Amino acid sequence: MNKLAPVITLDGPSGSGKGTIAALLAKQLDWNLLDSGAVYRVLACAAKRQGVALDDEERLVDVALKLGVHFQNHRVWLEGDDVTAEVRLETTGMAASTLAVLPKVRAALLQRQRDFQQSPGLVADGRDMGTVVFPQAHLKIFLNASPEERARRRHLQLKGQGVDVNLTSLLDEIKARDERDSQRAVAPLKPAMDAIQVDTTALSIEQVLKLIMDEVRHRRLI
Ligand code: DC
């Protein structure tokens, strides 16, 4: 894999800043971007459309293998329909987290994610990018922040989108999702042994980005 395009993995819980940082990093480097959470989220949308239960592993594998998903210009398409707004809903995130515990479903999505490793490089964001999907990645970052700060960020983001949600219920949802994502048997949310761990609670986006770019240069990835 090291002969292929270089990979930077950004893992962490929701609200840790990894989505924002990954997008900015990919833009700055002019590399490809894999938002692996969106892949799980689109699968949840497809399952809902087809009336497939979130614990029906065999049928979900079938849906995953045939998933007609397309990412372009920050938009997500499922079988030709723009599902960008639906993909970002909290309920979709919860559904994605539920089906993501199923080992065969994760296996069915593996190659689809690895296919993103293309020249000149890839920034991959998710939960298991550094541990399972790209274990040979050239740089692994694990971002975290306190649950309260993550709920606050998500609240702000939703408010900006005109969505009014209760901060306390957001915090409860974040904690529930953390619990499920980190306690599952297969590919749980955890830092890779060789990941650089960054607590972003008191850091700005610019500070986190600078820290990662310094490491990118130090490792001569550019
Ligand atoms: O990063 P996100 O909130 O878009 O991810 C939604 C859910 O998808 C997350 O709660 C768990 C699952 N997921 C996963 O299991 N592995 C990944 N690499 C990315 C997401």
What does this structure look like?
The protein has 222 residues and is of the alpha/beta class. The protein is 51% helix and 15% strand. The strands form 2 sheets. Strands 2-6-1-7-8 form a 5-stranded parallel sheet. It has a 3-stranded antiparallel sheet with strand order 3-4-5. The longest helix has 17 residues, at 167-183. The two termini are 18 Å apart. Bound molecules: 2'-deoxycytidine-5'-monophosphate (DC). 2'-deoxycytidine-5'-monophosphate binds at residues 14, 36-37, 40-41, 93, 96-97, 100, 126-128, 177, 181.
The biggest beta sheet, please? 5 strands, parallel
Low-confidence stretches: none
- Radius of gyration of CA atoms, rounded to a whole number: 17 Å
- Count of extended strands: 8
Q: What are the distinct ligands in this entry?
A: 2'-deoxycytidine-5'-monophosphate
| Strand and helix order | EHEHHEEEHHHEHEHHEH
Distance between the termini: 18 Å
Strand order of the largest sheet: 2-6-1-7-8
State the oligomer.
single chain
**Helix segment count?**
10
Q: Bin the helical content.
A: 40-55%
Gross morphology is: globular
What is the beta-strand fraction?
A: 15-25%
Arithmetic mean pLDDT: 95
Query: What structural class do the secondary elements suggest?
Result: alpha/beta
